[in-house]
Design goal:
The protein is α+β, with helices and mostly antiparallel strands. Helices cover 49% and strands 14% of the residues. The structure holds flavin-adenine dinucleotide (FAD).
């Protein structure tokens, strides 16, 4: 069976030994036992365990042509029912983290599926490159591989018309071609879960003019010369009671450094190719399928936020106030909007040029723009409703100390004991105020390019000639025509 269990994922990731740096120290030993990583690795392991559960396996996987079962994110949909199957599986995995794992393996596995479906595009440079893509997809489904990715140049100078034409640019670029492959030097902005996946997919950012950056490939996370420089972990080693989210779901974001990394020819999908750098995004259905995964995760996340808010309200009995009801209604509107946009994309789905049933782009693009703007308002709502409750949150150790009696008495809720109340408010704090919670807000705004660039792309690509013509026609009606019609 191609599907792996949580333990298999842990064993494999422990054997990999990629070069990860956290707070000035290189991670040595088992990743699954490192204090900054063990929470996220065990949360990911739980995902793999879910997919092999007897009662879940049909929901979470499909039979590949070779008869093995592989994760449903790898499944290329052919019908609208297939899209629905994908939606159910995506949401099922998202439920295990309240949608807080942006990079559950189905995100990149979906991306790989779309690149595989459109692999023919890559033959324009060399037919071997499309074979490389097909081979990677086969290997990934057969071994249930997980991926991270890095698409963007480092944030050095974002001023207008800033191009780094220097001999040794900061952004990852080709320095040499050899009989064994290409040599890459430089850095990429970020890879969430860098080093915690089997491989990393490296694709170019849009709008390139310099051939040296126009490369696409995938390499194992432990490739020599590949380095992940992680930020400080938001898993501070606290208990699940104290940091219910940070202790479980901090995905860690890393700068990716390539110290003269050899990328073998069989791992390359294109190189020094500006046309393919754009075509791979424009001509594949990368956007639609990826955002379909994203929007489904966001639905589950919004449900989790709604549930948390409702628990806070009940705990301190503020549900009777108009403004509280209005704020909850805002979250419900967001939830129903996201659900409607996903369904709309599925209803309007069409077979694309690669034979893949592809959800409609427009509602998904709208969902992406909308969520990037609405998400930060959820934190605001939680803070406005929680008020001081979000800082009156003694920790687990306080409940296990001589002051327990005081806490039990003074921190009780209207409908709960002190321990339950603090648990709920700690969750709300971790969702909206902690380092983990604020990073979630940043993530939802920026992981796909930022609110401004998302809106700009929608403005540029949304077909609206029909609407324009209808208004023009209305304006051109003469009084005589109107009178005749009457
Ligand atoms: C939590 C998190 C996780 C991420 N994970 C990944 C990952 O796994 N893989 C990956 O590839 N990427 C990842 N990203 C990166 C993400 O793709 C970028 O953050 C996004 O593309 C925006 O780029 P930037 O961060 O460099 O912002 P910048 O482009 O530097 O923007 C900074 C500010 O300058 C403004 N600005 C910049 N250029 C212009 C312009 N031309 N016109 C107008 N305003 C401009 C922006 O609007 C913004 O306000 C992640 C980002 C975050 C925050």
């Amino acid at each position: 069976m191609a599907l792996i269990s949580g333990q298999q994922y842990i064993d494999r990731i422990n054997q990999l030994k990629p070069e990860i740096w956290i707070e000035g120290k290189q991670v040595t030993g088992k990743l699954s036992e490192h204090p900054a990583l063990k929470g996220i690795i065990s949360s990911k392991a739980r995902l793999y365990d879910i997919q092999v559960q007897k009662d879940m396996i049909d929901k979470m996987s499909f039979k590949t042509p070779s008869g093995e079962r592989a994760g449903l994110a790898f499944f290329p949909p052919k019908t609208k029912e297939d899209l629905e199957r994908r939606r159910i599986a995506i949401q099922e995995w998202a439920k295990s983290s309240g949608g807080l794992l942006g990079r559950s393996p189905d995100y990149l596995n979906t991306i790989l599926m779309t690149f595989m479906q459109s692999a023919e595009l890559l033959s324009s440079q060399d037919p071997k490159f499309s074979q490389n893509m097909l081979h990677l997809y086969k290997k990934a489904t057969k071994n249930d591989l997980s991926f991270t990715h890095t698409f963007v140049h480092p944030q050095v100078n974002r001023g207008p018309f800033q191009f780094d034409f220097s001999e040794d640019p900061v952004a990852a670029h080709i320095t040499k071609k050899t009989k064994d492959g290409i040599i890459i030097r430089g850095a990429r902005l970020l890879a969430t879960q860098g080093g915690l996946t089997d491989e990393i997919i490296v694709f170019p950012q849009g709008g390139l003019t310099d051939l040296r950056f126009a490369n696409g490939f995938s390499i194992p996370a432990n490739t020599p010369g590949l380095k992940f420089i992680a930020r400080e972990s938001f898993d501070y080693g606290k208990s699940h009671f104290d940091h219910p989210l940070g202790s479980r779901f901090d995905e860690l974001d890393s700068v990716v450094v390539f110290d003269d990394v050899l990328v073998p020819w069989e791992n390359i999908f294109f190189y020094e190719n500006i046309e393919l750098s754009n075509d791979i995004y424009n001509k594949s259905s990368f956007f639609q399928h990826t955002v379909h995964q994203v929007a489904n995760r966001c639905i589950v996340k919004t449900e989790f936020i709604l549930g948390t808010i409702q628990l806070m309200i009940q705990t301190i009995n503020i549900g009777g106030y108009d403004h509280v009801q209005e704020k909850v209604a805002d979250v419900i509107v967001a939830l129903e909007t996201m659900k409607a946009l996903v369904l709309s994309s599925e209803i309007q789905a069409k077979i694309d040029r690669w034979g893949t049933m592809t959800p409609a782009k427009e509602p998904l693009h709208a969902a992406l723009c909308y969520y990037a703007k609405i998400y930060p308002t959820f934190s605001d709502i939680i803070q406005k409703l929680g008020a001081s409750g979000l800082v009156s949150i003694p920790g687990e150790k306080d409940f296990d100390s001589p002051i327990r009696e005081d806490i039990d008495k003074y921190l009780q809720g209207a409908n709960s004991n002190a321990e339950d109340r603090v648990k709920i408010f700690r969750l709300a704090w971790d969702l909206s105020m902690s380092a983990f919670g604020t990073r979630q807000s940043l993530y939802e705004q920026y992981f796909f390019g930022g609110p401004l660039s998302l809106s700009k792309r929608l403005y540029l690509n949304y077909y609206r000639d029909d609407q324009l013509n209808r208004v023009k026609a209305f304006l051109s009606i003469t009084d005589e025509e109107e009178e005749t019609a009457e």
